[in-house]
């Protein structure tokens, strides 16, 4: 079983923090961080552990026991709000190497179609990482609200700056209308393999 020191170091590296940056967030010296990580200091007070977990953006259980809660995919439905709204949903951070060419700020949410729901570009059992946004960033797949329903569309920007939306049925792109709004950008898509 991994001890506390190596877990602190692993979580610090995952958070892309150096010792000095973590020390500033926790309110200790970077030498103290070194002592914690090496195991030279084995006892850390509860107040410092809480500050450490907050600085590393992880649950206290991940720090103490190494238990990492993995977020379950949220169920996407055509009707209603985006699945991350109105719930305590845990976002994920994707490594950039998993999503080459994508630009987004903040967390994404893992999404899969709810049972009985079908979406263009997303079949039952597929997973999508969607970053909430109402701003067009670059061409690609977006979750949009169209006539009160959530749908996935390929969104492009025309020469005059106008947005166009297209489903995966090969239909002609439809122009932006006042009843359309961007809800999220698909930054990753994983298809379920069929054997």
Automatic annotation (TrEMBL):
User: SUPFAM superfamilies from the xrefs?
Assistant: lambda repressor-like DNA-binding domains
GO molecular function terms here?
A: DNA binding
InterPro entries per record? Cro/C1-type_HTH, Lambda_DNA-bd_dom_sf
A Pfam family in this protein?
Answer: HTH_3
Q: Which residues form the HTH cro/C1-type domain?
A: 8-63
Q: CDD domains per the record?
A: HTH_XRE (cd00093)
Name the chain's protein. Answer: Transcriptional regulator
Q: Which organism is it from?
A: Halomonas beimenensis
């Amino acid at each position: 079983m991994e001890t506390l020191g190596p877990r602190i170091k692993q979580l610090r590296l995952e958070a892309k923090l150096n010792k000095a940056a973590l020390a500033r967030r926790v309110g200790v010296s970077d030498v103290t961080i070194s002592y914690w990580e090496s195991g030279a200091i084995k006892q850390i007070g509860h107040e410092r552990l809480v500050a450490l977990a907050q600085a590393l953006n992880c649950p206290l259980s991940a720090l103490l026991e190494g238990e990492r809660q993995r977020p379950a995919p949220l169920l996407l439905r055509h009707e209603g709000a985006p699945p991350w709204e109105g719930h305590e949903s845990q976002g994920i951070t994707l490594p950039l190497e998993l999503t080459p060419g994508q630009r987004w700020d903040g967390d994404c949410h893992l999404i899969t179609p709810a049972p009985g729901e079908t979406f263009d570009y997303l079949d039952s059992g597929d997973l999508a990482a969607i970053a909430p946004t109402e701003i067009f960033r670059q061409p690609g797949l977006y979750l949009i609200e169209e006539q009160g329903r959530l749908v996935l569309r390929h969104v492009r920007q025309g020469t005059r700056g106008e947005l166009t939306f297209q489903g995966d049925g090969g239909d002609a792109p439809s122009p932006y209308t006042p009843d359309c709004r961007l809800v999220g950008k698909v930054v990753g898509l994983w298809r379920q393999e069929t054997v």
